Amino acid sequence: MNENKIRLAGIIRESIVDGPGIRMTIFTQGCPHHCKGCHNPETWDFDKGYDGDIEKIFETAKKDPLLQGLTFSGGEPFAQAKVLAKLGRMCHQYGYNVFCYTGYTFEQLVASFDTHPQWKELLEQVDYLVDGPFILEERSLMLHFRGSKNQRLLDVKKSLEQGKPVDAEGI
User: Fold this and answer.
1) Is the pLDDT of residue 155 over 80?
2) What is the pLDDT of residues 59-92, one digit of tens each?
3) Helix/strand/coil for 57
4) Of the candidates 13, 98, 137, 162, which lies 20 to 30 Å from 131 by C-alpha distance?
5) Widest CA span in the chain
6) Which helix (H) or strand (E) covers residue 106, if one does?
7) Residue 51 and residue 123: Cα distance in Å, rounded?
8) What is the Cα–Cα distance from 101 to 73, expressed in whole angstroms?
9) CA trace torsion 36, 111, 26, 168 (10° rounding)
C-alpha cells in the first residue's frame, strides 16, 4: 500500500470553523463510532469516499498564504493514523499547526498505544485535539470548535507531558 495514500470524504481548502485561524480541513472516510446526530454520517462507510495523496494535499495547502494549519476530521482520523501522522510531520516542518477531531477520548487513545502504536504516532503530531464522541443530548451551539458538552478541546503536547488531559487555552 502506498504510504501517502489516504481515504477521503472531502477537503475544505479554507475553513474558519474547524480550529483556530484559516485552515485546510481534511475529512477522512470511515468511522466506527456512528454517533447519533453525527454532522457527517456520509463519512461512516469505510468503502466509500475516494483516494487522495497527502503530498498533493500538502502541496495544495502550501500554495495558500492564508493558512495557519490543517485540521483532521472525519470520519475518524485515528482510523488512518499512520498516514495522517506523516502529514502532521510535514505540517510541523512547514510551520503549520495541526488540529484534530476524534470520537475517542484522550484516555482511550493513550491506553491503546500498545495495541495501536500508530495512534501514539498521530497524537504526537497533533497540537489541539477535540476528543470524545458527539452526544446529541449534550449538543450546544455555544461551544468553541466542539459540538457537544462532553467533548474537550485539549492541548496535546501538555496532555502528553502531564499524562492527563489539559485544556487548551487561548484559542
Assistant:
1) yes
2) 999 999 999 999 999 999 999 999 999 999 999 9
3) helix
4) 13
5) 42
6) helix 106-111
7) 23
8) 5
9) 90
Q: Which helix (H) or strand (E) holds 117?
A: helix 117-123
Site of grid cell 510551520: 95
Which residue in this structure is represented by grid cell 475518524? 76
Q: Quick check: 101 and 152 in contact, CB under 8 A?
A: no
Instruction: Tell whether the model's pLDDT for residue 123 goes beyond 90.
Output: yes
Residues in the chain: 171
Q: Return the SS3 of 118.
A: helix
Residue pointed to by grid coordinates 502541496: 59
Cα dihedral sign for 18, 20, 25, 27? negative
**Which run of H or E residues covers position 69?**
strand 69-73
Q: Which grid cell sits at 19?
A: 480550529
Report, in this order, helix, strand and coil percent for the chain, each rounded to 5: 30, 25, 45
The residue whose grid cell reads 487561548 is 170
What is the rounded average pLDDT for all residues in the chain?
Answer: 96
